Amino acid sequence: MDYHALHGHDVSSFDLPSTHRLPTVSAAEALQALEEANSPGLITGLTSLDASLDPVLGSGQGGIQKGHVTEVWGPPGAGKTALGIQLAAHCLNQRGRVLWTDFIAYPSSASAPYSVKRPVKATVQISFA
């Protein structure tokens, strides 16, 4: 039996390929395009950090590797947020785009009251004009 005969057509017509609002690109295609572009890393604007990260990329410029998730961790007050702001500002200054995702991990005993009574919002959208 035909899917649409059984379930009917989507009210919003999202089941039709011609009605997609955004072009669809798979993650594999996006990463392949990134590799083919031979793009250097995201330069941080911090010379010593870029030099330290150069052996990872071998580009001669260093920076944060594109197409990968980069996790920055450390104790409170170590400068993680300041580094993130520096990276975001430098990227935006170069006409790049930034997705800021923040995660707050509470010890299990401290998070118990929040897990049932009220959910914690884990992501916040920030736009720079």
Give the amount of beta strand, in percent.
Answer: under 5%
**Rg to the nearest angstrom?**
21 Å
The arrangement of helices and strands along the chain is HHHHH
Structure summary, number of beta strands: 0
Q: Biggest sheet, open or closed, and with what strands and sense?
A: none
Q: Count of helical segments?
A: 5
Overall number of domains: 1
Overall residue-averaged pLDDT value: 70
Stretches where pLDDT is under 50 for at least 5 consecutive residues are none
Distance between the termini: 52 Å
Query: Strand pairing plus helix content: what structural class?
Result: mainly alpha
General shape:
extended
Roughly what percent helix? 25-40%
Task: List strands and helices in order, with pairings.
Layout (H helix, E strand, L loop, with lengths): L2 H5 L19 H10 L10 H11 L22 H14 L14 H10 L12
Describe this protein with a few key phrases.
129 residues; mainly alpha
Describe this structure in words.
This protein is an all-alpha fold and 129 residues long. The chain has one domain (3-117). The protein is 39% helix and 0% strand. The protein starts with a helix and ends in a 12-residue tail after the last helix.
What's the short version?
The protein is mainly α and 129 residues long. 39% of the residues lie in helices and 0% in strands. The protein has helices spanning 3-7, 27-36, 47-57, 80-93, 108-117.
